[in-house]
Design a protein that fits this description.
This is DUF1989 domain-containing protein. With 283 residues, the protein is α+β, with helices and mostly antiparallel strands. It contains six helices and 13 strands. The chain has one domain. The chain is globular. It binds zinc ion (ZN). The site of zinc ion has 8 residues, from loops.
């Protein structure tokens, strides 16, 4: 360990600068969406059994809602442009734009070169939680997803119901792809209902029992035709451990809602990003 320089305190005291001022982003019309959702009608639902994943579809202009119908349960969410699976949720850039945890008004941005909102969060019954004394908050985009490879590294075991594997099986079943092909489309998730943060002393990723209770939900507006996959994490409320069958687990529910025609008057679907993709070629 090196000796701190004489001006170490002054260097540490430099004030931070927000990397991406969120005010510069194209803003969702939350007033329009709040008005529209009051009269939406449920048109589909998918129940996700404990320690499993299932796919669901929401057309552009529909809402989808993830809820805990039973007991506290964390969900790992993947979403794609249903018409082009190469365009998928970009957890890292979403984190850079909105912060470590998402709530109402945040958007789920898609991968390059499109970088546009796939979905916008319109309602969050856990928005009261904020950031707790440990630095924890809910609905994170910092964890990646529990997976059998990390589990194997740490424990040497073969566990098949990590969210990564659940999502892989669900996508394979939905699309008819082989498992190995489907796995290539599985990506870093939005950890729905999960309560996480980084420890203040060592900067390590931590989880704690989710504050979610029966009836809580997180709701989204589909900005494009969305194919979603949701895994009911084997960690249950993620208060103790995941990547095993130890934790008590519960199902999750996805409900899809449709609006009456004309309810989205003034809404404009997001277009692909405006960068010309020449990357400076030709000088
Ligand atoms: Zn998981």
């Amino acid at each position: 360990m090196h000796t701190p320089p004489k001006d170490a305190a002054a260097r540490r005291a430099v004030a931070p600068v927000i990397c991406y001022p969120v005010e510069a982003l194209p803003q969702p019309d939350l007033t329009l969406l709040r008005t529209a959702r009051k009269r939406m009608v449920k048109t589909d639902e998918v129940l996700i059994p404990a320690r499993q994943a299932r796919c669901f579809n929401a057309k552009a202009g529909q809402f989808f809602r993830i809820s805990c119908p039973d007991g506290p349960q964390v969900g790992d969410l993947n979403i794609w442009n249903a018409n082009n699976l190469a365009e998928r949720f970009y957890s890292g850039k979403t984190r850079a734009l909105h912060g470590t945890h998402l709530s109402t008004g945040c958007r789920m941005w898609s991968s390059f070169p499109n970088l546009r909102p796939l979905a916008t969060i319109t309602h969050d019954t856990l928005d009261w939680y904020g950031i707790d004394e440990f630095g924890g908050s809910v609905h994170d985009v910092i964890g990646t997803r529990c997976d059998p490879y990390t589990n194997n590294l740490l424990s040497g075991g073969q566990y098949h119901h990590c969210c990564h594997s659940n999502l892989t099986r669900a996508l394979a079943e939905e699309t008819g792809m082989a498992l190995a092909e489907a796995e290539q489309h599985v990506h870093d998730v939005l950890n729905v209902f999960m309560c996480t943060g980084f420890t203040r002393d060592t900067g390590q990723y931590f989880m704690k029992a989710s504050p979610v209770r029966q009836g809580d939900f997180l709701e989204f507006f589909a900005e494009v035709d969305v194919l979603g996959a949701l895994s009911a994490c084997p960690g249950g409320d993620c208060g103790s451990e995941h990547s095993s069958d130890t934790a008590q687990c519960h199902p999750l529910l996805v409900e899809v809602f449709t609006l009456e025609s004309g309810a989205l008057k003034g809404w404009v679907p997001p277009v692909p990003n405006g960068y010309d993709r020449s990357h400076g070629a030709g000088g």
